Amino acid sequence: MRDTALPALFQNRPFAVLWGAQTFSGLGDGIFRVAQVALLLELTGSAAALSGLLLVAVVPGIGLALLGGALADRTDRRRLLVAANTVRGLLMAAFAGLALADAVTLWHLYLLAFAYGGVSALSNPAFDALLPALVPRESLQRAQALFLLGDNVAAILGPALGGVLLVAVGAGGAVAVNALSFGVLVAGLLSLRAGAGVVGETSPASIWQDIGSGLRYARGHPALLSLLGLFAVINLSGATLAVALPLLVTGTLRQPAAAYGLYLTAMNVGILGGAALMGRVRVRRRGLAILGSLLTAGLLGYLPLALAREVGVGLFAVLLIDGLAMVSNVLYPAWVGTRIPDAYRGRVFGLTSLVSSSLVPVGFVVAGVAANALGPPGALLGAGGLLVGAALLGSLVPALRRME
Hints:
By secondary structure, the chain is an all-alpha fold. It is built from 14 helices and no strands. Helix 3 packs across helix 13 (about 340-395) and helix 6 (about 140-170) packs antiparallel against helix 10. The chain is globular, with a radius of gyration of 21 Å.
């Protein structure tokens, strides 16, 4: 089959439209996060209130991920995305009006976070399952890498632009820009023709039966179950890194808090570099590549980060960790897009989202306990050991070794 180069993907109009609209929407989300935190701190000044807001945003993903996956397999995915992003845009527009009127209260912030998280949980599997309908199968890996590049660029530029808008037009104006970004995304989705139509089962089964059949499908797929287990370990290690890294920089290394910004920059550089590389190389043994990335991240990323006392070593370690994370972030959805039947693809992505969402709060709690008990270096060593152990155990699974 023809090998589609990166520029050629942008000549594919449906892909280019969806990529541009999604990237612009991600930019709006970055702007909103700055305005959201600014409003909350202005209202309460409480770190506990901020933690509660983050938790409220995650909870719907735990409860609705499987339902969102089933919806993606029994409805028109494009229409589902149009409806979901229209609702999100209207929520943002209403909140912008409250902010412009200086009428925002704490419960408004919590309600918006909960509703926004719920709509996202219901629609994200449909978005992930839609991409294979837009590009050739041999180009899925590159397409996934490009979406990750766009997301990361938006994650870098969005908060910076949000800070500028916060000063220039206030929180209400910044939120209004995010509402506008959803209008761009909806317009892009409406222009698509590929991927329309219902792809799921035509039986009269209820949506709860669909969820059950999706779980049974996953249970009978050793490679998929193994990958979900690996992602659980990745999420726990990533949560430990998020909690222990600022403590390591300011406490163990006795660096100023501003130095932590250098580590975050190195992480973003790693993500950009890893996504760009995964967009260029063709990987045939995807299972071995994912296992190798986990082993390397544990041995050459977390281990030096925990033991080294030089900032330069730490910067390289976090760059490597986040760069290697792009291996699984690109290869897994590309594998699902090419190997999982279309009728089950949404439910598989919903199950993946559930594994990720449910372990976020658990991971932060475990990471906090480990950092207090073992110190930041000990917690990071434990996170690296988890990755190495998972990679070694995964290598014993024939389905993973053979996974292409």
